[in-house]
Specification:
Shape: globular
Strand order of the largest sheet: 2-10-9-8-5-3-4
Order of helices and strands: EHHEHEHEHEEEHEHEEHHHHEEHEEEH
Strand content: 15-25%
CATH class of the largest domain: Alpha Beta
Radius of gyration: 20 Å
CATH superfamily of the largest domain: Type I PLP-dependent aspartate aminotransferase-like (Major domain)
CATH architecture of the largest domain: 3-Layer(aba) Sandwich
Helix content: 40-55%
CATH topology of the largest domain: Aspartate Aminotransferase, domain 2
Number of helices: 13
Number of domains: 2
Distance between the termini: 21 Å
Number of strands: 15
Length: 357
């Protein structure tokens, strides 16, 4: 199978080889050294400001989203949430669940966030801004410059879900004033799922210090204390963390974050140019490098997904809900090459000959 989904994605042979080994015992100096190096390399890739820290959570990206809310927001905050799809809606639900006062900026699916959308919220006392930078359900990538400018002039604490966009799109935490950022192991890091990663700047760390999370497993204070010695409070996904280390070494050897973003952007552009030969429409005008969302007027996106999977050995990414009949996504993260896209395009051609597309 060739995997064009947006997570889990394909891994390198070297990363997969680690998964075939027995999981080692982890309360050791050797594992601690690897974890401390993981933190150092990730902070460098994210261009996090001096004094930043990382928390490694064994859990999905949603665990990190919830942890960000309960560890750094309270009932005294007034949050603004960008809701442009399924993952933006998840932040809204988390604020509701944990009684964080909030308002949602509801956007039409696939549409970008604009200055006009933000204008009415200027000077209204908002204390936090939550955004899924790449709304993975539609592939739209929000304008970081616009968000940064709004948060800076309103002195707003900025939480960025970069689960799909970290290492796929250019992100500089220091430049864009991102206070807390999160990502997941199964996206552009291209290792198996199981670890979510939270980047905390000194501003976020100050919030963690004064806010009680009310949770044992997702408590940042405990995680940060253990992280000082390269450990986690509870048993982590040890093998996945070792695979992350291998992957980080690969990225560093291949030129760092800039080179990885350029590689993924090149794949995205290659596919988007070639797919113009087929009767699909790009669903958004402001896509992330991580994924291309394609609209099919025939309303048979799910049929295309099944045929590619069952007859051609190819996974693409389906969508849920009513829009799922018309929309599917093709990812550009993971261990992919232009040759892989040529196989997908060839399969599209065969489906077109059959009258499916």
């Amino acid at each position: 199978m060739i995997n064009f989904t947006v997570g889990p994605v394909q891994s390198s042979e070297e990363v997969r080889a680690i998964g075939a080994e027995n999981t080692p015992y982890f309360r050791t100096a050797e594992f601690s050294a690897i974890m401390l190096e993981n933190e150092k390399m990730l902070l460098k890739l994210a261009k996090a400001p001096e004094g930043s820290r990382i928390v490694f959570l064994t859990g999905s990206g949603t665990a990190a989203m919830e942890a960000a809310v309960i560890n750094t927001l309270t009932e005294e905050d007034k949050a603004l949430v960008v809701n442009g799809g399924g993952f933006g809606e998840r932040f809204v639900e988390l604020c509701e669940l944990h009684k964080v006062p909030h308002e949602a900026i509801v956007l039409e699916a696939g549409k970008p966030l604009t200055a006009d959308d933000l204008a009415k919220y200027d000077g209204q006392g908002y204390t936090a801004f939550l955004v899924n930078l790449d709304e993975t359900s539609t592939g739209v990538f929000y304008d970081l410059d616009l968000i940064h400018d709004f948060c800076k002039r309103n002195n707003i604490y900025l939480i960025v879900d970069a689960i799909s966009s970290f290492l796929a799109d250019s992100i500089d935490m220091d430049r864009y004033g991102i206070d807390l950022m999160l990502t997941g192991s199964q996206k552009a890091l291209a290792v198996p799922p199981g670890i979510s990663i939270v980047f905390l700047t000194p501003t976020a760390l100050e919030r963690v210090e004064r806010i009680e999370s009310g949770c044992m497993y997702l408590d940042f204070s405990d995680a940060l204390k253990n992280g000082e010695r390269g450990q986690t409070p509870f048993t982590p996904a040890v093998t996945t963390l070792l695979q992350i280390h291998k992957r980080l070494c690969e990225i560093e050897e291949q030129g760092g974050a800039e080179a990885e973003v350029a590689r993924i952007e090149s794949l995205a552009n290659y596919f988007r140019e070639k797919v113009k030969a087929f009767p699909f429409e790009l669903f958004t005008d402001s896509p992330s490098n991580a994924v291309t969302s394609l609209y099919t007027k025939k309303g048979n996106a799910k049929e295309i997904f099944e045929l590619l999977k069952n007859e051609y050995g190819i996974w693409i990414c389906p969508n849920g809900g009513e829009i799922g009949n018309y929309l599917f996504r093709v990812g550009h993260i993971g261990n992919l090459t232009t040759k892989d896209y040529d196989e997908l395009l060839a399969a599209f051609g065969k489906l077109q000959e059959r009258g499916v597309i």
